[in-house]
Amino acid sequence: MRTIIEPFRIKMTEALPITTRENREERLKAAHYNVFLLDAEDITIDLLTDSGTGAMSDRQWAALMMGDESYAGSRSWRRFEKTIRNITGFKHIFPTHQGRAAERILAATRLKRGDIVPNNSHFDTTRANIEYVGATALDLPSPKAGDIHAETRFKGDIDLTALERVIARERKTIPFCMITATNNTGGGQPVSLGNIRAAKALLAKQGIPLVLDACRFAENAYFIKLWEEGYADHSLIDIAREMFSLCDGATMSAKKDGLANIGGFFACNDDRWAEDFRNLLILTEGFPTYGGLAGRDLEAIAVGLEEALEEEYQRYRHATVEYLASRLITRGVPIVRPAGGHAVFIDAAGFCPHLSAKDFPGVGLTTALYLEGGVRGVELGSVMFGRCAEDGTETPAPRELVRLAFPRRVYTQSHFDYVIEAIENVFRERAAIPPFRIVRQAPFLRHFTAHFAPG
Ligand code: F0G
């Protein structure tokens, strides 16, 4: 059969809010044109994030009922630990309440002022946690990522030449290097095993550990199976094991490829790293056998991690993203290519050629999509990554993107047909998208709370 179907049927439904344009105009104005400030009940299709927004399976819901809520050494913890060890092979495993808690403790225990942490591209919480302790988060994306419209494979790779140069210059100030799979800020693009292996070889010569930001490890593994020579016949779990075997540790948000609504973990091999991590974990997250999660969450994550590695699931997941991407390409809508593992990224600058970076085209596009169909995406452009100096001068971001992230197992093909129609309508009338200006902003992470005004 050619048709790739959702490899599940639906046993419980949740009503979607259906709103009128008039109503949306009112809501958007009240939210100061910032879609983060809208109520979810005013949104029809919510593509703000793929984090914690997925649907759990019947097996996960059943596992929840098996949660052992013992404070220490629960059965659920053992199941969680066993599953993660089976996939990652790491010696030490620590649950955390979500990915950024793992990042925070890792940064607090391993970094000091003046240190440098290279990565293909840091996610914003990873960057913020590194900067919070006075260290530098250094992005080294592959030059392949430079052309966002080229159909090049593995644009998520880390730039090995740049990494070698940084290691030669800064060896003493690099406590560890990271690789983010898939590279979220770089368009959800995957990292090849060849690239991870080569980065590990460079780092190993200098004794620098490699930490995988593994949030979307299963989606990345599927890209390796599809694209990397020699892996077509490998199972996803074998590919994932090979990815983890090249690393010394991993941070994970189980809200992505854990198919859970909350949770995360940190894993590593080094006893000293583990000892320091454990001590701070107890102080701020909880005892090391629950780490800020309920026993039932540990159960749901253990099942979710296994389901994320099912080939039928990944085939469907990638087909859904590809479905939206290919239809936008046919309609001439500029997007980052190839389609990412968890999202389609629209090139808002190309979408709105009449607007410049100082007009925040990503804000114009997110608001237009909301007004058209109650669809919520997120700006990844000069609001999120640009800088505002004290005198109000704006330094724009290198790109103006709008991310449409796919919650896992939530929306069906007709939901995406609806999204395509909304984008198509907005694209036809794109010359009418107004410029926006910021009327109020916070000194950091301004995108969450900024107020905008058109004109
Ligand atoms: N690393 C990456 C690559 C991420 O995409 C995220 C979260 C995190 C770490 C942090 O994990 O949210 O569990 O603390 N990304 C979400 C997103 C929020 O919308 O892309 P967390």
UniProtKB/TrEMBL annotation:
Chain positions found as N6-(pyridoxal phosphate)lysine: K256
Species whose genome carries this gene: Methylosinus sporium
Residue ranges constituting the Aromatic amino acid beta-eliminating lyase/threonine aldolase domain according to the UniProt record: 46-421
UniProt entry tagged with the keyword Lyase: yes
Origin: domain of life: Bacteria
Keywords on record: Lyase, Pyridoxal phosphate
Pfam families found in the cross-reference section: Beta_elim_lyase
Xref: InterPro entries: ArAA_b-elim_lyase/Thr_aldolase, Beta-eliminating_lyase, PyrdxlP-dep_Trfase, PyrdxlP-dep_Trfase_major, PyrdxlP-dep_Trfase_small
SUPFAM superfamilies attached to this UniProt entry: PLP-dependent transferases (SSF53383)
Entry annotated with the keyword Lyase: yes
Subunit structure comment from the entry: Homotetramer.
PANTHER family given in the database record: BETA-ELIMINATING LYASE-LIKE PROTEIN-RELATED (PTHR32325), TRYPTOPHANASE (PTHR32325:SF4)
Cofactors (names): pyridoxal 5'-phosphate
GO molecular function term, any single one: carbon-carbon lyase activity
Stated family: Belongs to the beta-eliminating lyase family.
Any one GO biological process: aromatic amino acid metabolic process
Protein name (database record): Tyrosine phenol-lyase
